[in-house]
Amino acid sequence: MEKVIAYIEKHNKWKAGLERIRTVILQTELEETIKWGAPVYTINNKNVVGIGAFKNHFGLWFFQGALLKDKHGALLNAQEGKTKALRQWRFESVEDINETLLLEYIKEAIENQLQGLEIKPDRSKAIELDPVLQSALDNDTLFKEAFDKLTPGRRKEYASYILEAKRAATKLARLEKITPMIFQGIGLHDKYRNC
């Protein structure tokens, strides 16, 4: 797939490693696509694994990695406390890749997906609103209506974006930035979807 090759070429520092991981993945029945700007491999339109290049490492992530046995302790949770299912396998050089082991993990991930095993996100948790955002919603009826029309996921993205800012000035700057997006009905991270 041209877009996957372009992604690998763009990350020249990790090119050999990404190519090796891709070769292993392509030995399976997974279908190759691009999501969120990076190569993702699916089965029955369900995400199974993806590859990525970062500043200090490259790697493979398993969308339902928490369900893998991980007998070799290769996987880690990159965002402890935030991600429940996603797990990464990081590499710092092409020599770090054990293709046999990698294929074993990928095949287990495929089998889990075919069996319908998955950790679903907890969507019941109420969205925590920062006082800055709450005040804007309380003081502008049209803004509140636009915010309420967003999907729960988009509302949560915006709420977290404001809440995570440390300084009051940053919170206000972020509110100013997202207000037109909310009125347009688009999500904070929409530009990364379906890339």
From TrEMBL:
<dbReference type="Pfam" id="PF08818">
    <property type="entry name" value="DUF1801"/>
</dbReference>
<feature type="domain" description="YdhG-like">
    <location>
        <begin position="14"/>
        <end position="110"/>
    </location>
</feature>
<dbReference type="Pfam" id="PF13376">
    <property type="entry name" value="OmdA"/>
</dbReference>
<dbReference type="InterPro" id="IPR014922">
    <property type="entry name" value="YdhG-like"/>
</dbReference>
<protein>
    <recommendedName>
        <fullName>YdhG-like domain-containing protein</fullName>
    </recommendedName>
</protein>
<dbReference type="InterPro" id="IPR016786">
    <property type="entry name" value="YdeI_bac"/>
</dbReference>
